[in-house]
Amino acid sequence: MIEIQLLAVQAIGEVFAGASLNEVLRHIWQTGPHLTSQQRGAIQDIAYGVLRHYGQFDALLRRLLNKPLQDKQLHYLLTIALYQLCYSKAPAHAIVDHAVSSSRKISHNPAISGLINAVLRNFMRKQTALTNEIREDEVARYSYPQWWINKLRQQYPQDYKAILLAGNEHPAMILRINPLRTSIHHYQVMLKTQDIDSEWLWGNALRLRKPVPVERLPGFHEGLITVQDAGAQFAAPLLDVSSGMRVLDACAAPGGKSTHLAELSEGIELTVLDKYADRLTRLTENFSRLKITGYHLVCGDAMHPSQWWDGRLYDRILADVPCSASGVVSRHPDIKWLRRPGDIRNFAQAQMAILNALWPLLRQGGKLLYATCSIFNEENNAIAEKFLTARHDASRLPVSREAMNNGQLLPGSQHDGFFYALFQKD
Prior knowledge:
- This protein has helices at residues 2-16, 21-31, 37-52, 54-64, 72-87, 92-106, 110-134, 138-142, 146-155, 160-167, 184-193, 235-239, 256-264, 277-289, 334-338, 341-358, 381-390; strands at residues 174-177, 198-202, 205-208, 225-227, 246-249, 269-274, 296-299, 314-320, 362-372, 394-397, 404-405, 408-409, 418-425.
- It contains 17 helices and 13 strands.
- Helix 1 (2-16) crosses helix 5, helix 3 (37-52) crosses helix 5 and helix 9 (146-155) crosses helix 10.
- It has three domains: 2-142, Orthogonal Bundle (N-utilizing Substance Protein B Homolog, Chain A); 174-227, Alpha-Beta Plaits, CATH 3.30.70.1170; 232-425, Vaccinia Virus protein VP39 (Rossmann fold).
- The chain is globular and about 70 Å long.
Protein backbone atom coordinates (compact mmCIF):
# COMPACT_ATOMS: atom_id res chain seq x y z
CA MET A 1 0.00 0.00 0.00
CA ILE A 2 2.92 2.34 0.75
CA GLU A 3 4.31 1.79 -2.73
CA ILE A 4 0.93 2.55 -4.27
CA GLN A 5 0.60 5.88 -2.43
CA LEU A 6 4.14 6.90 -3.34
CA LEU A 7 3.69 6.07 -7.01
CA ALA A 8 0.43 8.02 -6.99
CA VAL A 9 2.30 10.97 -5.43
CA GLN A 10 4.82 10.72 -8.29
CA ALA A 11 2.05 10.66 -10.92
CA ILE A 12 0.19 13.66 -9.50
CA GLY A 13 3.42 15.62 -9.08
CA GLU A 14 4.41 15.05 -12.70
CA VAL A 15 0.98 16.20 -13.89
CA PHE A 16 1.31 19.47 -11.99
CA ALA A 17 4.78 19.82 -13.52
CA GLY A 18 3.12 19.82 -16.95
CA ALA A 19 2.86 16.18 -18.10
CA SER A 20 -0.34 14.44 -19.18
CA LEU A 21 -1.64 11.78 -16.81
CA ASN A 22 -1.82 9.12 -19.53
CA GLU A 23 1.84 9.66 -20.41
CA VAL A 24 2.89 9.65 -16.76
CA LEU A 25 1.09 6.39 -15.96
CA ARG A 26 2.41 4.74 -19.12
CA HIS A 27 5.94 5.73 -18.06
CA ILE A 28 5.43 4.35 -14.55
CA TRP A 29 4.12 1.04 -15.91
CA GLN A 30 7.13 0.75 -18.25
CA THR A 31 9.97 1.90 -15.98
CA GLY A 32 8.73 1.52 -12.41
CA PRO A 33 8.54 -1.56 -10.18
CA HIS A 34 6.58 -4.59 -11.30
CA LEU A 35 2.92 -4.02 -10.47
CA THR A 36 -0.05 -6.34 -10.56
CA SER A 37 -3.13 -5.27 -12.50
CA GLN A 38 -4.82 -4.63 -9.14
CA GLN A 39 -1.99 -2.33 -8.03
CA ARG A 40 -2.07 -0.45 -11.34
CA GLY A 41 -5.80 -0.04 -10.97
CA ALA A 42 -5.38 1.35 -7.45
CA ILE A 43 -2.75 3.89 -8.55
CA GLN A 44 -4.89 4.94 -11.49
CA ASP A 45 -7.99 5.31 -9.30
CA ILE A 46 -6.11 7.50 -6.83
CA ALA A 47 -4.51 9.71 -9.48
CA TYR A 48 -7.77 10.21 -11.38
CA GLY A 49 -9.75 10.76 -8.19
CA VAL A 50 -7.37 13.35 -6.76
CA LEU A 51 -7.30 15.29 -10.04
CA ARG A 52 -11.08 15.18 -10.36
CA HIS A 53 -11.53 16.73 -6.93
CA TYR A 54 -8.23 18.56 -6.46
CA GLY A 55 -9.87 21.95 -5.91
CA GLN A 56 -11.74 20.50 -2.94
CA PHE A 57 -8.65 18.95 -1.34
CA ASP A 58 -6.46 21.99 -1.93
CA ALA A 59 -9.04 24.20 -0.22
CA LEU A 60 -9.27 21.80 2.73
CA LEU A 61 -5.51 21.83 3.18
CA ARG A 62 -5.42 25.62 3.21
CA ARG A 63 -7.66 25.41 6.28
CA LEU A 64 -5.94 22.44 7.90
CA LEU A 65 -2.36 23.72 7.58
CA ASN A 66 -1.00 26.82 9.30
CA LYS A 67 1.22 27.41 6.26
CA PRO A 68 1.69 25.59 2.93
CA LEU A 69 4.06 22.64 2.95
CA GLN A 70 7.37 23.39 1.26
CA ASP A 71 7.64 19.85 -0.08
CA LYS A 72 5.07 19.41 -2.83
CA GLN A 73 5.27 15.63 -2.50
CA LEU A 74 3.90 15.87 1.04
CA HIS A 75 1.12 18.15 -0.20
CA TYR A 76 0.13 15.59 -2.85
CA LEU A 77 0.36 12.79 -0.27
CA LEU A 78 -2.18 14.64 1.88
CA THR A 79 -4.52 15.15 -1.09
CA ILE A 80 -4.35 11.40 -1.71
CA ALA A 81 -5.23 10.63 1.88
CA LEU A 82 -8.11 13.14 1.78
CA TYR A 83 -9.40 11.55 -1.41
CA GLN A 84 -9.33 8.13 0.22
CA LEU A 85 -11.03 9.42 3.36
CA CYS A 86 -13.76 11.15 1.36
CA TYR A 87 -14.35 8.74 -1.52
CA SER A 88 -13.03 5.27 -0.71
CA LYS A 89 -14.35 2.50 1.52
CA ALA A 90 -10.98 1.80 3.14
CA PRO A 91 -10.89 2.09 6.95
CA ALA A 92 -9.95 5.62 8.02
CA HIS A 93 -7.31 4.46 10.50
CA ALA A 94 -5.57 2.41 7.76
CA ILE A 95 -5.55 5.39 5.38
CA VAL A 96 -3.95 7.62 8.03
CA ASP A 97 -1.40 4.97 9.00
CA HIS A 98 -0.37 4.42 5.38
CA ALA A 99 -0.03 8.17 4.81
CA VAL A 100 2.16 8.54 7.89
CA SER A 101 4.36 5.62 6.77
CA SER A 102 4.60 7.07 3.25
CA SER A 103 5.61 10.47 4.62
CA ARG A 104 8.67 8.86 6.23
CA LYS A 105 9.75 7.67 2.78
CA ILE A 106 9.45 11.23 1.45
CA SER A 107 10.96 13.21 4.30
CA HIS A 108 13.62 12.33 6.89
CA ASN A 109 12.37 15.08 9.19
CA PRO A 110 10.87 13.20 12.18
CA ALA A 111 8.34 15.99 12.76
CA ILE A 112 6.70 15.45 9.35
CA SER A 113 5.03 12.14 10.17
CA GLY A 114 3.49 13.73 13.25
CA LEU A 115 2.22 16.65 11.15
CA ILE A 116 0.65 14.30 8.58
CA ASN A 117 -1.05 12.35 11.36
CA ALA A 118 -2.34 15.48 13.07
CA VAL A 119 -3.69 17.07 9.86
CA LEU A 120 -5.61 13.96 8.81
CA ARG A 121 -7.05 13.27 12.26
CA ASN A 122 -8.09 16.91 12.55
CA PHE A 123 -9.88 16.57 9.21
CA MET A 124 -11.70 13.45 10.42
CA ARG A 125 -12.95 15.35 13.49
CA LYS A 126 -14.06 18.44 11.55
CA GLN A 127 -14.98 16.88 8.18
CA THR A 128 -18.60 18.02 8.05
CA ALA A 129 -17.90 21.59 9.15
CA LEU A 130 -14.91 21.95 6.81
CA THR A 131 -16.79 20.52 3.85
CA ASN A 132 -19.63 22.98 4.38
CA GLU A 133 -17.20 25.87 4.84
CA ILE A 134 -15.34 25.37 1.57
CA ARG A 135 -18.56 25.24 -0.46
CA GLU A 136 -18.46 29.04 -0.49
CA ASP A 137 -15.33 28.72 -2.68
CA GLU A 138 -16.25 27.93 -6.31
CA VAL A 139 -12.89 26.35 -7.09
CA ALA A 140 -13.37 24.03 -4.10
CA ARG A 141 -17.02 23.30 -4.90
CA TYR A 142 -16.53 22.48 -8.58
CA SER A 143 -12.80 21.57 -8.67
CA TYR A 144 -11.92 23.65 -11.73
CA PRO A 145 -9.66 26.70 -12.05
CA GLN A 146 -11.57 29.96 -11.53
CA TRP A 147 -10.92 31.17 -15.09
CA TRP A 148 -12.52 27.99 -16.45
CA ILE A 149 -15.60 28.43 -14.25
CA ASN A 150 -15.91 32.09 -15.27
CA LYS A 151 -15.64 31.26 -18.97
CA LEU A 152 -18.36 28.60 -18.82
CA ARG A 153 -20.64 30.88 -16.76
CA GLN A 154 -20.27 33.59 -19.40
CA GLN A 155 -20.79 31.24 -22.37
CA TYR A 156 -23.42 28.92 -20.83
CA PRO A 157 -25.24 30.90 -18.11
CA GLN A 158 -28.03 28.31 -17.86
CA ASP A 159 -25.89 25.17 -18.18
CA TYR A 160 -22.49 25.90 -16.68
CA LYS A 161 -23.13 24.19 -13.34
CA ALA A 162 -24.35 21.00 -15.02
CA ILE A 163 -21.33 21.09 -17.38
CA LEU A 164 -18.90 21.42 -14.47
CA LEU A 165 -20.55 18.62 -12.50
CA ALA A 166 -20.68 16.32 -15.54
CA GLY A 167 -16.94 16.72 -15.97
CA ASN A 168 -16.38 15.35 -12.47
CA GLU A 169 -18.43 12.20 -13.01
CA HIS A 170 -16.96 8.84 -13.93
CA PRO A 171 -17.41 8.57 -17.72
CA ALA A 172 -19.64 5.98 -19.34
CA MET A 173 -18.02 3.13 -21.24
CA ILE A 174 -19.33 3.21 -24.80
CA LEU A 175 -18.68 0.65 -27.50
CA ARG A 176 -18.91 1.05 -31.27
CA ILE A 177 -20.03 -2.08 -33.05
CA ASN A 178 -18.14 -2.90 -36.25
CA PRO A 179 -20.99 -3.50 -38.73
CA LEU A 180 -18.62 -5.30 -41.09
CA ARG A 181 -18.11 -8.01 -38.48
CA THR A 182 -21.26 -8.20 -36.32
CA SER A 183 -24.57 -6.50 -35.40
CA ILE A 184 -25.93 -4.69 -32.37
CA HIS A 185 -28.29 -7.54 -31.49
CA HIS A 186 -25.70 -10.28 -31.95
CA TYR A 187 -23.10 -8.46 -29.91
CA GLN A 188 -25.52 -7.71 -27.08
CA VAL A 189 -26.19 -11.44 -26.89
CA MET A 190 -22.43 -12.06 -26.71
CA LEU A 191 -22.16 -9.52 -23.87
CA LYS A 192 -25.03 -11.16 -22.02
CA THR A 193 -23.24 -14.52 -22.05
CA GLN A 194 -20.42 -12.77 -20.17
CA ASP A 195 -22.90 -11.20 -17.69
CA ILE A 196 -22.24 -7.73 -19.13
CA ASP A 197 -25.38 -5.58 -19.39
CA SER A 198 -25.65 -2.97 -22.14
CA GLU A 199 -28.11 -0.56 -23.72
CA TRP A 200 -28.32 0.64 -27.31
CA LEU A 201 -27.95 4.41 -27.66
CA TRP A 202 -28.06 5.14 -31.39
CA GLY A 203 -26.38 3.94 -34.60
CA ASN A 204 -23.72 1.43 -33.62
CA ALA A 205 -23.23 2.79 -30.09
CA LEU A 206 -23.72 0.59 -27.03
CA ARG A 207 -23.42 1.84 -23.45
CA LEU A 208 -22.28 -0.63 -20.82
CA ARG A 209 -24.21 -0.45 -17.57
CA LYS A 210 -20.89 -0.90 -15.76
CA PRO A 211 -17.39 -0.40 -17.22
CA VAL A 212 -15.25 -3.52 -17.60
CA PRO A 213 -11.62 -4.11 -18.68
CA VAL A 214 -11.36 -4.42 -22.46
CA GLU A 215 -9.95 -7.94 -21.95
CA ARG A 216 -13.41 -8.98 -20.77
CA LEU A 217 -15.14 -7.74 -23.92
CA PRO A 218 -15.94 -10.65 -26.23
CA GLY A 219 -14.45 -10.25 -29.69
CA PHE A 220 -12.42 -7.16 -28.85
CA HIS A 221 -9.13 -8.59 -30.12
CA GLU A 222 -10.98 -10.01 -33.13
CA GLY A 223 -12.13 -6.52 -34.15
CA LEU A 224 -15.85 -6.80 -33.42
CA ILE A 225 -15.95 -3.56 -31.44
CA THR A 226 -14.09 -0.36 -30.60
CA VAL A 227 -14.26 1.58 -27.34
CA GLN A 228 -15.34 5.09 -28.41
CA ASP A 229 -17.45 7.79 -26.81
CA ALA A 230 -20.96 8.17 -28.25
CA GLY A 231 -20.33 11.85 -29.04
CA ALA A 232 -17.22 10.97 -31.02
CA GLN A 233 -19.31 8.50 -33.02
CA PHE A 234 -21.29 11.38 -34.57
CA ALA A 235 -18.32 12.43 -36.72
CA ALA A 236 -18.10 9.70 -39.36
CA PRO A 237 -21.85 9.56 -40.21
CA LEU A 238 -21.94 13.36 -40.57
CA LEU A 239 -19.38 13.16 -43.40
CA ASP A 240 -21.76 10.94 -45.42
CA VAL A 241 -19.09 8.86 -47.16
CA SER A 242 -19.86 6.36 -49.90
CA SER A 243 -17.95 3.90 -52.05
CA GLY A 244 -15.49 5.43 -54.51
CA MET A 245 -14.94 8.65 -52.54
CA ARG A 246 -11.48 9.96 -51.80
CA VAL A 247 -11.45 10.74 -48.06
CA LEU A 248 -8.85 12.43 -45.82
CA ASP A 249 -8.69 12.19 -42.03
CA ALA A 250 -6.26 15.03 -41.41
CA CYS A 251 -5.51 14.65 -37.67
CA ALA A 252 -6.17 10.95 -37.35
CA ALA A 253 -4.41 9.37 -34.37
CA PRO A 254 -5.37 7.27 -32.46
CA GLY A 255 -7.72 6.30 -35.29
CA GLY A 256 -11.18 6.04 -33.75
CA LYS A 257 -12.85 8.24 -36.34
CA SER A 258 -10.70 6.92 -39.21
CA THR A 259 -11.67 3.31 -38.54
CA HIS A 260 -15.31 4.38 -38.19
CA LEU A 261 -15.17 5.99 -41.65
CA ALA A 262 -13.73 2.77 -43.07
CA GLU A 263 -16.45 0.68 -41.41
CA LEU A 264 -19.23 2.82 -42.90
CA SER A 265 -18.10 2.26 -46.48
CA GLU A 266 -15.61 -0.37 -47.58
CA GLY A 267 -15.05 1.24 -50.98
CA ILE A 268 -13.57 4.60 -49.96
CA GLU A 269 -10.01 5.64 -50.75
CA LEU A 270 -8.93 6.66 -47.26
CA THR A 271 -5.84 8.73 -46.47
CA VAL A 272 -4.94 8.73 -42.78
CA LEU A 273 -2.69 11.62 -41.75
CA ASP A 274 -1.03 12.50 -38.47
CA LYS A 275 1.86 14.74 -37.51
CA TYR A 276 3.54 12.33 -35.09
CA ALA A 277 5.08 9.03 -36.22
CA ASP A 278 4.77 7.36 -32.81
CA ARG A 279 1.03 8.05 -32.75
CA LEU A 280 0.67 6.48 -36.19
CA THR A 281 1.98 3.23 -34.69
CA ARG A 282 -1.02 3.01 -32.38
CA LEU A 283 -3.31 3.97 -35.26
CA THR A 284 -1.92 1.12 -37.37
CA GLU A 285 -2.53 -1.29 -34.49
CA ASN A 286 -6.19 -0.22 -34.33
CA PHE A 287 -6.68 -0.72 -38.06
CA SER A 288 -5.02 -4.12 -37.82
CA ARG A 289 -7.17 -5.26 -34.90
CA LEU A 290 -10.33 -4.29 -36.81
CA LYS A 291 -9.09 -6.14 -39.92
CA ILE A 292 -9.29 -2.94 -41.99
CA THR A 293 -6.96 -2.70 -44.98
CA GLY A 294 -6.56 -0.52 -48.05
CA TYR A 295 -5.94 2.80 -46.29
CA HIS A 296 -3.01 5.11 -47.07
CA LEU A 297 -0.93 6.10 -44.03
CA VAL A 298 0.89 9.47 -44.14
CA CYS A 299 3.06 11.18 -41.52
CA GLY A 300 2.59 14.90 -42.09
CA ASP A 301 1.33 18.19 -40.71
CA ALA A 302 -2.22 19.17 -41.69
CA MET A 303 -1.08 22.78 -41.55
CA HIS A 304 1.44 22.19 -44.37
CA PRO A 305 -0.14 20.07 -47.14
CA SER A 306 2.62 20.94 -49.63
CA GLN A 307 4.88 18.57 -47.70
CA TRP A 308 2.69 15.48 -48.20
CA TRP A 309 -0.31 16.07 -50.54
CA ASP A 310 -0.23 14.30 -53.92
CA GLY A 311 -2.28 17.01 -55.66
CA ARG A 312 -5.50 14.99 -56.07
CA LEU A 313 -8.60 16.60 -54.55
CA TYR A 314 -10.65 14.93 -51.82
CA ASP A 315 -14.42 14.37 -51.75
CA ARG A 316 -14.51 14.42 -47.96
CA ILE A 317 -12.15 15.79 -45.29
CA LEU A 318 -12.33 15.26 -41.54
CA ALA A 319 -10.45 17.94 -39.59
CA ASP A 320 -10.54 16.69 -36.01
CA VAL A 321 -8.23 19.47 -34.87
CA PRO A 322 -6.04 19.78 -31.76
CA CYS A 323 -7.99 21.62 -29.06
CA SER A 324 -8.26 22.33 -25.34
CA ALA A 325 -10.08 19.00 -24.78
CA SER A 326 -12.38 20.88 -22.42
CA GLY A 327 -15.26 18.58 -23.35
CA VAL A 328 -13.57 15.38 -22.19
CA VAL A 329 -12.38 16.22 -18.67
CA SER A 330 -14.38 13.34 -17.18
CA ARG A 331 -11.95 11.03 -19.01
CA HIS A 332 -8.93 13.30 -18.62
CA PRO A 333 -9.24 15.25 -15.33
CA ASP A 334 -5.63 16.42 -15.63
CA ILE A 335 -6.76 18.69 -18.49
CA LYS A 336 -8.41 21.05 -15.98
CA TRP A 337 -5.12 21.75 -14.23
CA LEU A 338 -2.81 21.62 -17.29
CA ARG A 339 -4.64 24.25 -19.36
CA ARG A 340 -4.00 27.99 -19.07
CA PRO A 341 -6.27 30.80 -20.36
CA GLY A 342 -3.81 31.70 -23.12
CA ASP A 343 -3.90 28.14 -24.45
CA ILE A 344 -7.39 28.68 -25.86
CA ARG A 345 -6.23 31.55 -28.05
CA ASN A 346 -3.25 29.51 -29.26
CA PHE A 347 -5.46 26.54 -30.12
CA ALA A 348 -7.88 28.81 -32.01
CA GLN A 349 -5.05 30.21 -34.14
CA ALA A 350 -3.83 26.72 -35.03
CA GLN A 351 -7.37 25.53 -35.76
CA MET A 352 -7.99 28.36 -38.22
CA ALA A 353 -4.63 27.72 -39.88
CA ILE A 354 -5.49 24.02 -40.36
CA LEU A 355 -8.91 24.85 -41.83
CA ASN A 356 -7.42 27.32 -44.29
CA ALA A 357 -4.68 24.88 -45.27
CA LEU A 358 -7.05 21.97 -45.90
CA TRP A 359 -9.80 23.84 -47.76
CA PRO A 360 -7.94 24.00 -51.10
CA LEU A 361 -7.62 20.20 -51.00
CA LEU A 362 -11.41 19.75 -51.23
CA ARG A 363 -13.15 19.40 -54.57
CA GLN A 364 -16.14 21.57 -55.50
CA GLY A 365 -19.26 20.05 -53.95
CA GLY A 366 -17.16 18.21 -51.39
CA LYS A 367 -17.63 18.36 -47.61
CA LEU A 368 -15.27 19.16 -44.76
CA LEU A 369 -16.18 18.34 -41.15
CA TYR A 370 -14.52 20.55 -38.55
CA ALA A 371 -14.49 18.76 -35.18
CA THR A 372 -13.22 19.44 -31.66
CA CYS A 373 -13.68 17.85 -28.25
CA SER A 374 -13.99 21.33 -26.78
CA ILE A 375 -16.90 23.24 -25.26
CA PHE A 376 -15.26 26.68 -25.46
CA ASN A 377 -16.85 28.92 -28.07
CA GLU A 378 -13.51 30.42 -29.17
CA GLU A 379 -12.56 27.03 -30.61
CA ASN A 380 -15.97 26.16 -32.00
CA ASN A 381 -18.69 28.40 -33.40
CA ALA A 382 -16.37 31.42 -33.34
CA ILE A 383 -13.98 29.53 -35.64
CA ALA A 384 -16.81 28.37 -37.91
CA GLU A 385 -18.17 31.91 -38.29
CA LYS A 386 -14.72 33.39 -38.91
CA PHE A 387 -14.02 30.75 -41.56
CA LEU A 388 -17.33 31.42 -43.35
CA THR A 389 -16.63 35.14 -43.37
CA ALA A 390 -13.23 34.61 -44.97
CA ARG A 391 -14.28 31.90 -47.47
CA HIS A 392 -16.92 32.96 -49.98
CA ASP A 393 -16.88 29.50 -51.59
CA ALA A 394 -17.94 27.81 -48.32
CA SER A 395 -21.40 27.21 -46.92
CA ARG A 396 -22.28 25.62 -43.59
CA LEU A 397 -24.62 22.64 -43.71
CA PRO A 398 -27.01 21.94 -40.82
CA VAL A 399 -25.90 19.39 -38.23
CA SER A 400 -29.02 17.88 -36.73
CA ARG A 401 -28.41 15.48 -33.89
CA GLU A 402 -30.27 15.04 -30.63
CA ALA A 403 -28.93 17.20 -27.78
CA MET A 404 -26.75 19.21 -30.19
CA ASN A 405 -27.20 22.98 -30.36
CA ASN A 406 -25.73 24.57 -33.50
CA GLY A 407 -23.15 21.81 -33.64
CA GLN A 408 -22.29 21.95 -29.92
CA LEU A 409 -22.75 18.80 -27.86
CA LEU A 410 -22.39 19.40 -24.12
CA PRO A 411 -20.99 16.69 -21.81
CA GLY A 412 -23.57 14.50 -20.10
CA SER A 413 -24.18 11.02 -18.76
CA GLN A 414 -24.08 9.34 -22.19
CA HIS A 415 -21.42 11.32 -24.06
CA ASP A 416 -18.58 13.80 -23.77
CA GLY A 417 -18.56 17.36 -25.10
CA PHE A 418 -17.92 17.81 -28.84
CA PHE A 419 -18.39 20.38 -31.57
CA TYR A 420 -19.09 19.75 -35.26
CA ALA A 421 -19.34 22.19 -38.16
CA LEU A 422 -19.97 20.75 -41.63
CA PHE A 423 -18.85 22.88 -44.59
CA GLN A 424 -19.53 22.36 -48.29
CA LYS A 425 -17.43 23.86 -51.08
CA ASP A 426 -19.72 25.79 -53.45
